[in-house]
Amino acid sequence: xxxxxxxxxxxxxxxxxxxxxxxxxxxAARRRAAEQATxxxxxxxMYDFALDPFQIEACQxxxxxxxVLVAAPTGSGKTIVGEFAVHLALQQGRKCFxxxxxxxxxxxxxxxxxxxxxxxxxxLLTGDNSVNSDAPVVxxxxxxxxxxxxxxxxxxxGLGHVVMDEVHYLSDRFxxxxxEEVIIHLPESxxxxxxSATVSNAEEFGDWLDTVRGDTExxxxxxxxxxxxxxxxxxxxxxxxxxxxxxxKKAVNPDLVRLARTEASQPSYxxxxxxxxxxxxxxxxxRRQRSRAWTPGRPEVIERLDSEGLLPxxxxxxxxxxxxxxxxxxxxxxxxxxxxxxxxxxxDLVEERTxxxxxxxxxxxxxxxxxxxxxxGIAAHHAGMLPTFKEVVxxxxxxxxxxxVFATETLALGINMPARSVVLEKLVKWNGEQHADITPGEYxxxxxxxxxxxxxVEGHAVVLWHRGMSPEHLAGLAGTRTYPLRSSFKxxxxxxxxLVEQFGRHRSRELLETSFAQFQADRSVVGISRQVQRNEExxxxxxxxxxxxxxxxxxxxxxxxxxxxxxxxLARQGATQRRAEAAVALEKLRPxxxxxxxxxxxxxxxxxxxxxxxxxRSNGHRGVEYHDGPRPLVxxxxxxxxxxxxxxxxxxxxxxxxxxIPKTFNPRSPQSRRDLxxxxxxxxxxxxxxxxxxxxxxxxxxxxxxxxxxxxxAHPCHGCNDREDHARWAERYHRLLRDTSQLxxxxxxxxxxxxxxxxxxxxxxxxxxxxxxxxxxxxxKRLARLYGELDLLASECLREGVWEGLGPAELAxxxxxxxxxxxxxxxxxAPRVPSGRxxxxxxxxxxxxxxxxxxxxxxxxxxSEGVGQxxxxxxxAWAAYMWASGTGLDEVLREAxxxxxDFVRWCKQxxxxxxxxxxxxxxxxxxxxxxxRKAVEQLLRGVVAYSSVG
Length: 950
Hints:
The chain is an alpha/beta fold.
């Protein structure tokens, strides 16, 4: 039945309809009726704003039964598409799982969906929380869904849609593989909704999704709903980064370029102070320079943004300690961004959210200093904070009660905290190994927080000026949208046993070949393969051009090449021998020897002041030692004192004469150098340099060279009139053949890389009796239930009974070594560990890791490729032991020397692994499962228990 919708007279729609023929009006009415009957129509009515074209396009594709990949900027509203998948699943009577990369984002999404659909229809599953897990809509971290898929959980029954929020996380080198595992292993009947930040290779990712998941629509939107303006704050002036203009490519503000050029031409304060007192004129110039441009202080920046109406703002500082310091600086400066009413609202909310925290813990957690900052509208946000504190900051910021947040870059990873402005203090951050420039992708991710949809007309990104800043470099960061998605997928031991158990080895291998990592590797091979094909066509042409009517020119060219190679080899040997002879001669030099430097910039007469011998060889003289051969320090006849290198002595050098070097000689004194150089010329200026007689070439007496020359002269092609033309074509042929062979080796190295790694892992697991062909042993089934970086080590500890007989606190200490990783490099001091049985068990764990490390080396499984077991870190063992033993928070944090947020996070990870161990260690007579459950109870108290929903 067709329902014809009435159109109100006088509307634009009715006016347009009046201009249509009856048939066209009827067709339009049918279209409207069809649109009204869709799930999208009822979904749109739930929002009080119109959907954007990209949102409508993605929702329509979903309703048509297609999977979708939506790549759009931060804050553009791509989660609307995920919410439509929830709406669609509920309307169809099926389930929808909404996955997020971090627990905080899961908690936030859970609260949003509960408000919209009611708590009875929405569940939450994170590593340590389960709320209404049988609900039709469940929000979870991606790892939870991966574990469900491997375990064949009954919760998967009736699953219709899976939303993967922040799917670009699959680039993460530590956790990214989980996203690919889920995408590959989800049942075919499940429709996948992938939501990503703007990436430059969305089409490539979409092609892969199309291959492994079926029909997938790729929707890319680069439009920011709130325009973003870029600025540089230098001293008292806020510069626009770009000139105003209508052109597609914006020009850098010439005022900024001039400022950078002026700054570069001025010596810095430190430069002028170096080596002399600072003159009054220099001080005046310094004052003038500072009045033009300097890096403003943090309170100064907030005051400036407040005066220009650019708050609320997030200032990104790539250091936790600096975030806390920034809040203190603002408090000491007397900044107050809230009035009395706002202060009271802040206090009320904070007291409500923290009511469950014991009063004795408040001082330890820095509660009162934190509250003072919040009341003034200022806060820090970083991973070292207590989760409850972070969530309060987020809630107050969204409500407009906190107006200035100093945060590390982790805030940019999905948490819904949009601001009017974003400030970047520096364009350099520590990446775990070194200080490196932030990438265009990171810059886009950070500044994407600026501009609140429906609140702000425009967003602002402000970079603080610093000496040496390049406006052109900053413009490149701001103007580049290159953020490619790169797979970090690598097989693991747990993945291998789970795959073999479900699919067998052959099918598992095929599945891994469908990963995005292999897809990208194969794509990169396509271009190389085309080049190989072109080279092969060229080789055929070259081969034809070198054909000789007198004989086999390929054979003749091979003889010529062998001769050339032999001559080159002998020449290299001769050069090496001469260098060795020259080095031996240099090692014999002593201070006072007069030599003739044979070549180089300082060729000529010279007096040896210091022989500069290789390390460990003194020759009776205690001078400077070098590790790269002798480097004599000499005085030349032209009065220069220089340190020479072996390159200045291609042939051996012999002393011509000896001279006494006065004890008063000072190489820094021009007069001393002049007097000694004059004496040098008088003493040895008349002696001619020894001519180095060239030795007879090795090639003259080499039998192989003689044989090759005879064979070449006897070959028929040697008498060809076009011999040199043929030879040129032969040379090109063999050069191209060499290049083609290199390309083929590159192809071989890139194809089947994932499968080859899987084969090596399977071989090692077979050696340890976790696998027997396609059969997974009982030990293997236990390994299948252990997820984590040190899955195999945990399994071996269970198998060897390392943890048997340990008490709950002792087991917690041992398990902490499986999850903890220090944020900084190795400390000089060994970490403190519990004594007795726990210490012995930890030592045994390190011994087992050493054995596994040797096996991995034998089977060519390397940590550099992202596979393999790192050494267990004992740095959290004492803190875990103390907390599980009932020690107070103050003492534990003091002993652990770590922020409360880090302590809670590590405790929760220990609890997660203890849960896995409890489930996996179901061996009769084992005490481990009971100890693990008891350890979880003892860890899950106080600050760890009340730190948020998830």
